[in-house]
């Protein structure tokens, strides 16, 4: 029920409550013009992280895709609409079932591989290195209240962050170093990396 409520609140916020206007968009025009330097580094990093978050969810959900509903449609949709697609799955789809893992064995091996997990870490590192250019929280607040895009993507980021922590504790209650899940975005990946033996045991038939 809590996920359903959050989903409805997120929709209401995006549709009616988000401050700013869609016309005051600091990202897409500059991206299309190739003028990345004109985008505030923090705004740019948060925007990019909304493309990394879905990769993290895709990894964890497909490694555990034996719930009532298949996870892959919601995980793939999250690349476009973030938490808006994941929350219905968490509200209704994550129920214990006797289904076998839906994910093909080759994909399971890839997603739990050290190579893939390190790729995610590198992507996260490169994204946040952009902050070394200098950023201002005050400027970000100005963008938040001026642009509905920044407003919605910020709230979306916060919801995804909370979901990522819950996801680790939901699927890996016996994992070591679960506290790493609180590290934004990359934390769940670090938990998987430190528990690769657990992943192999969970999917031993694969």
**String of helices and strands:** HHHHHHHHHHH
Beta-strand share of residues: under 5%
Number of helices: 11
Give the termini distance in whole angstroms.
Answer: 34 Å
Unreliable stretches covering 5 or more consecutive residues:
none
Helix fraction, binned, reads 55-70%
What best-fitting shape do the alpha-carbon axes yield?
A: globular
Structural class by SSE content: mainly alpha
Number of strands: 0
Rg over CA atoms, rounded to whole Å, is 18 Å
User: Mind describing the biggest β-sheet?
Assistant: none
Mean pLDDT: 88
Task: Give a structural overview.
This protein has 206 residues and is mostly helical. It is 67% helix and 0% strand. It has eleven helices and no strands. Helix 3 (41-63) packs antiparallel against helix 7 (114-129) and helix 8 crosses helix 9. The longest helix has 24 residues, at 148-171. The chain starts with a helix and ends with a helix.
Keywords:
11 helices, globular, 206 residues, 67% helix, mainly alpha
Question: What is shown here, in short?
Answer:
It contains eleven helices and no strands. It is an all-alpha fold.
List the helices and strands and how they pair.
Blueprint: H1 2-17, H2 28-32, H3 41-63, H4 72-81, H5 83-93, H6 105-111, H7 114-129, H8 137-146, H9 148-171, H10 187-194, H11 196-202
């Amino acid at each position: 029920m809590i996920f359903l409520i959050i989903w409805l609140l997120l929709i209401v916020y995006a549709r009616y409550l988000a401050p700013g206007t869609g016309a005051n968009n600091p990202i897409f025009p500059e991206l299309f013009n190739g003028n990345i330097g004109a985008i505030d580094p923090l705004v740019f990093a948060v925007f990019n992280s909304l493309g990394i978050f879905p990769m993290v969810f895709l990894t964890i959900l497909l490694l555990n895709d034996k719930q009532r509903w298949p996870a892959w449609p919601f995980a793939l949709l999250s690349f476009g609409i973030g938490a808006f697609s994941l929350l219905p799955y968490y509200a209704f789809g994550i129920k214990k079932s006797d289904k076998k893992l839906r994910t093909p064995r080759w994909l399971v091996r890839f997603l739990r591989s050290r190579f893939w997990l390190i790729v995610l870490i590198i992507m996260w590192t490169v994204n946040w290195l952009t902050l070394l250019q200098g950023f201002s929280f005050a400027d970000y607040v100005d963008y938040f209240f001026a642009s509905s895009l920044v407003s919605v993507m910020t709230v979306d980021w916060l919801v995804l962050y909370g979901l990522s922590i819950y996801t680790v504790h939901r699927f890996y209650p016996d994992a070591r170093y679960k506290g790493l899940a609180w590290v934004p975005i990359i934390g769940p990946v670090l938990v998987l990396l430190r528990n690769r033996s657990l992943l192999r045991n969970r999917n031993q038939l694969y």
